[in-house]
Write a structure and sequence with these properties.
- Helices cover 68% and strands 3% of the residues.
- The chain is mostly helical.
- The chain contains 15 helices and 3 strands.
Length: 300
């Protein structure tokens, strides 16, 4: 052997790579010999040492041998490959973080094997697959419904974030698991469909935007202090929420809306969606809606 040519064994000593690895990379054409000895042994020049170091680095970064071969053959630029690989690694990191969050949830919830299976499945779903679960649910609940209020509500119910946070909180993981369980239950779908098919297009959006805050401000404290909706003490509270001179037809429409939205399952859907989107939790509204509905029936 000359000083400029090296056997596989000598390359192994210089680079610290196993002989079998160098031989395999040579067999696959990643690092080719410069020539062969009279006895047929492969001989490598000094450039092979640097080439092996580069191959080892690329492999440790997770690139496949075919990709490495294309980079070394100038068929791909290292920059392009690196950018693609960064995206792949970021996706993998997000998945691993989500799995860690799932496992933390398992330890806290003492989950059953069925829950663990569901959580693992949800953790490995892509953002598109998670969104499709919600879209399928909303599509079935609102099928054939075209009025503007219902369409707006349907759009809001699809508002799932494109990706879960890189490091979701246990509450967000719990919320996503519960939401997936909730939408798989046909009872919620039937409840929603009954709500959107009840009556003709009305001012549901207006009620939601204007009356709901007043209900939470006044009816919720009335419940907390134990004021029955049928009592005389409820009348001034009722007047702070609903003007005494509200026409009978609008009062009837409001009562119908209150009865329709006072569904715990539907409210839970919105709560879970808010948690997943990172919104702060809001106090439950269904008990306050029921209180106001009973107060309206008793006093108007």
């Amino acid at each position: 052997m000359t000083d400029d040519l090296h056997t596989i064994g000598e390359l192994a000593q210089r680079t610290g790579l196993p002989v079998r690895t160098i031989r395999f990379w040579s067999d696959t054409g990643v690092v080719t010999p410069a020539t062969r000895s009279a006895a047929g042994y492969r001989l490598y020049d000094a450039e092979a040492v640097g080439r092996l170091d580069l191959v080892r680095t690329l492999r440790e970064l997770g690139l496949g041998l075919e990709t490495v071969r294309q980079i070394l053959g100038n068929q791909l630029t290292l920059s392009d490959v690196a950018e693609t690989h960064v995206h792949a690694l970021e996706a993998e990191i997000r998945t691993l973080r989500l799995r860690c969050a799932v496992l933390r949830t398992v330890t806290k919830r003492e989950s059953t094997t069925e829950e663990l299976t569901l959580m693992h499945k949800l953790a490995t779903l892509s953002a598109q697959e998670r969104q499709q679960i919600i879209n399928d649910f909303v599509d079935k609940a609102f099928s054939g419904v075209t009025d503007e209020d219902s369409t707006a509500i349907a759009d809001l119910m699809r508002d799932l974030p494109p990706t879960l946070p890189d490091d979701p909180t246990p509450a967000q993981v719990d919320a996503w698991i519960e939401l997936a369980e909730l939408v798989s239950d046909t009872s919620l779908q039937q409840t929603l469909r009954r709500m959107v098919l009840t009556g003709t297009p009305d001012n549901r959006i207006e009620f939601g935007l204007t009356i709901r805050p007043l209900i939470l401000e006044h009816a919720a404290p009335a419940i907390a202090t134990g004021i029955p909706p049928e009592s005389l003490a409820a009348e001034p509270i009722l007047s702070r929420i609903v003007p005494p001179d509200l026409p009978a037809t609008e009062t009837a429409a409001l009562v119908a809306w209150l009865d329709a939205v006072a569904e715990p399952e539907v409210e839970r859907y919105w709560e879970l969606l808010g948690l997943i989107n990172g919104h702060p939790p809001t106090p439950p509204a269904v008990p306050a809606f029921a209180w106001l509905s009973a107060a309206l029936r008793a006093h108007r």
